[in-house]
Please model this.
Amino acid sequence: MTKILSVGGSIIVPEKPDTEFLGKFVSMCTAWLDEDKSRRLILVAGGGAPARVYQNAYGEVVAATGKSADANAADWIGIMATRINAQLLKACFGDYCKNDVVYNPTVENLSFDGQVLVASGWKPGFSTDTDAVYLGEKFDGKVIVNLSNIEKVFTDDPRKNPDAKPLDNISWEDFRKMVGDEWTPGKNCPFDPIASKKASELGMKVICAGGKNIENIKAILNDEDFVGTTIGESFGGEVDCFAALALTVRSGFPRCWTHRSVVGDLCYSCT
Model:
């Protein structure tokens, strides 16, 4: 049994590495793995504070020199931030993770020798959501747990609309009506359009949940009742995705409305 946890960078490194959370997270995961040696986890790391700090620095420098900012370059900076966070996760899991951090999830004959495999961002135009789906397909993982600082998907931006409602579940058909089929620079949503299309075609289920609630994550892994939003189950009605909102900033990059961070193709602080 293989399950995929997409661990948001804001959970790993909100400002600096959250060692208290990481200790509890690793302990919970390893205890869960020890209960059944056939269990395996794939962890996909986001960028968090390192992505914000270095992308913001790049934006400030190009603005000061009067040059045109390149979204592709900023995206690569964010991807590199995911890689250092992924390396931290790999180190924390020790002998449970026997393979190198995965940079390209489409590599043929990708090895998974331990009970934990850690991956990072791949390349511009793909979010870590897409990486997670590719890895799920490769290793027969039917459930992707998307952990962030948002506990549920809402019908609208709850910071702007007091009537926004949290969703317990939503079908792929309705969710994809919210996010569309194309990935555009700066688009930020609970699960990106490219990943959503592929996950729906593969019959995968995605669970969006708060990343700091260790007991809730454990409940998800054990297929017990949990707090979060399940994408891929029947749900009636159409909703608007609050997370698709973005702000434009002086540097020419979009900003994630949640983190106010300068981003390229993706807010690696969220993923």
Q: What stands out?
A: The longest strand covers residues 2-7. Confidence is low (pLDDT under 50) at residues 234-271. The domain at 2-256 is CATH 3.40.1160.10 (Carbamate kinase).
